[in-house]
Design goal:
Elements lengths: L10 E2 L1 H7 L4 H13 L12 E2 H10 L2 H4 L10 H14 L3
Antiparallel strand pairs: 1-2
Helix pairs in contact: 1-2
Length: about 90
């Protein structure tokens, strides 16, 4: 027997999009016009499903100060780090 793999859906029906937003399906449906006016991602025109990644990104964009610098974690240029530290050391009162 072949192993079963869980596939996390990317596009979900309205009921699951409502759950992602922490709302009942009825409250979500009632709030949709206001959400769309605020840039909430619209459903796919062919399937009617919502993209969970787009919903998550929209939610992060509402509070960018909470997420700045957390999304892109990459190594810094070592020469710039040395320059910054030397400048801070020189400007430090003795």
């Amino acid at each position: 027997m072949a192993p079963r793999f869980q596939i996390a859906p990317g596009d979900v029906p309205e009921e699951l999009a409502a759950r992602r937003m922490g709302m009942s399906p009825q409250a979500f449906k009632a709030a949709l016009p206001n959400l769309f006016a605020r840039g909430f991602p619209k459903p796919d025109p062919d399937t009617g499903n919502y993209d969970l990644d787009a919903i998550d990104e929209w939610r992060r964009c509402r509070h960018p100060h909470l997420y700045q610098g957390r999304v892109e974690l990459r190594p810094r240029d070592a020469s710039l780090v040395v320059q910054e530290r030397l400048a801070a050391f020189r400007d430090k009162p003795t």
